């Protein structure tokens, strides 16, 4: 006989004792279970003991987590958490260094358990650990263990980081700033300061003022991956807690000290694999750096700013230098203004006054910055872009300014400029750390890609949005590959022309729909009858549930309700009038019945008698799509039961169900969609075990029969 569900079979062990195999009743109080276990080993004072999981972190069993005990679990009997906490905290006061070390080791092993942590914290355990850390009598293993225990207890969130004292934080800062320090102490100290910085703005300012950036750079340059990771964690925490102005100054200083180059060469391209935590901090650093572009992205061009007007003129003159030089004193002001307006239009601005194009935010002034950077750092490519498109027909020219504005918006979206940092993301781009001015350099590559794609698509002005969609896909696909350098990005993105994008789209679409190999098509055909039966069953169940329909009067007023459903034995349609707002009636309360055997045909649309009338108003046309009727014999005359479905879906469900009752095929659009969805799901389930196994186009050949069948067992021979 199987044991009840709330009884689990477990083992309980204790040092120097024979383990017990018991059946634990989860409904019995834990204290009673402990009493039985202690009695079996002749132990008194059962309240002094507790049960723990024997593996993992040896968590204490409580009423809250006892449901995690499963059949076959191994538990151990140990000292109760309150007594254990009391004993260990007493050991911290010992004058013996060895005993304090052993006590701290035990404390570290138990600290992740929330039950034990509550007991330690309630007995001022954090203060006692803080005293050991502040005293700093032993800068080796004892300090390391004390920091680990302190961090584990604080991670439970029972005590706020803001409650830490300033002297305590300053002492931890000293451990970070010391030159000769145990290799395990500084990562723990950095981790503690990171938590303080993220949780307490006031103490974060203290950490920022006490820990120089140069010191963190020293830690980053040490070939100790754990120390590098914790130093980067504190650095990103300080950057996140700084104001936008302070953050800009800090990042500018870090770049001047070649932090970018060091990260690129010694962390990203290190021989050791990059850990998940470091990847997250590099993502945060990238996001914060790109976030410096947000003010420019959110600021529209000011038409009254002399500096910005000069930048626009510089952009125009860089493209039309010879023509710009010809604007001498011989031209009138009106003529000069007209010529400038024409050249701005050649540049691809939608308005003769380019300030109107750059009033949109985003991208605001960031688009102007990108265009200026491209014109100054790639002058030949810039001139070629503008002049090449100026010489094309008006409808085929690729507008540089409009493209640059939209491309800047696109890059900001792909790189998530201005968005808050995720707490878990790790998708940083290695090429960001391999290039100064990475955003502007990426724009320079992308704008040339856009011009190339424009020509490949033979686009016109009306195709501008289509071109941008293709460019978005080209950039997104290439960025997803995480190229390690800008040159590699340029190579990969240029190897993804418009034709290749179309091919990838087609391949992905076929992959989503399922492969078209003959064996798969054959499998789908074999599955169809079973799945059509499933759909038929669902349709009939829907008819059994019934539906509220509205009656249509001669004046096309839908003012009365009636209810119709199929009997559970699928032999009778039962129906009758119901009041507005009333709940669906029971089968017994429906006065009218129509035997399914009497139904002759199903009519839909214009063939239905209740919509086959003179006039073709809009309302009448709308009813065609929802109308259906069943004809049946009523005496010697033919009668009809007329329906107007409340929705297109109900129309499909009812016509399918009635067709199934009449033995006709279910041919609605809803049936086609449901069948395709079920076929796709069932095919994928059948092919799960064949993942990454190539499926041949043709079945393997059947081998020839054997030369004899002597290996067959003759069932007619009786065994002795």
From TrEMBL:
Domain of life of the organism encoding this protein: Eukaryota
Keyword Secreted listed: no
Single GO MF annotation: SH3 domain binding
Stretches assigned to the ELMO domain: 307-479
Coiled coil stretches, renumbered: none
Pfam family membership, one: PH_12
Keywords linked to the UniProt accession: Apoptosis, Phagocytosis, SH3-binding
Biological process annotations from GO: actin filament organization; apoptotic process; cell motility; phagocytosis
Transmembrane segments: none
Function: Involved in cytoskeletal rearrangements required for phagocytosis of apoptotic cells and cell motility. Acts in association with DOCK1 and CRK. Was initially proposed to be required in complex with DOCK1 to activate Rac Rho small GTPases. May enhance the guanine nucleotide exchange factor (GEF) activity of DOCK1.
Protein name, UniProt field: Engulfment and cell motility 3
Organism: Ursus maritimus (Polar bear)
Protein's gene: ELMO3
